[in-house]
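BUG: 3D viewer hangs when loading the predicted structure for this chain

Environment: internal workstation, default settings.
Expected: structure renders.
Actual: progress bar stalls at 90%.

Input used:
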Amino acid sequence: FEKAYKQSAKPSRYFQLMVNTTVAMHLLPELTALLMIPAGPAHSAHGEATTFKHVMTTIDKAKRMDAPFHVFMAMLLHDMGKAFTPSELLPAHHGHEKRSETFATEFLAKHKFSKRVNEFAPKAAGLHMKVHCVTQMTPAKLVKFAMVLGKRDFNDMMTVFECDHPLTTEQRQRLQVVHDVLFELDLSAVASVPAHRRKDEAHQLRVAHVRRNT
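Structure tokens produced before the viewer hung:
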């Protein structure tokens, strides 16, 4: 997988070949299943495309954005949960992100991927839909979202969001506030606060910052 990503200008060709030659049925049968699964309702972000086509689009976009391998693996696995959507729910996929997170964790555990891939890909699968709610989040929920993303994964998660679906101007503005909460906010004022209150005081400062800037 890593060679296919790093050595090809269009890694989707590798996975298309896997499906065409039935190799995928032995290694990643869920990928073949996605050929028959709609990506979402006609009015949704992905329109009427198949989930397979959508996933292939995202991994090629990750390549064009020169994303690291763990982001590529996140895109490959982020919608695998749609292979397990009950047929009566189609073309909707309510809860697929949690199913994708579980699948990614189990799939990666069976194979020899790096610790970075093992940690990031399931997390990205579980969070990739959250960006669609970011414009409705309260200041407190935006702070919680920021802390869940974390400093280490923030930039890579932004790439995941962009690969999955182009962000709107309003979403970008909200995510900039999330960025500031993580990287720019001065929390030195809480250094003198008693230890048992420090976490809560820091949270309140973050919420106040978000409230002023949204």
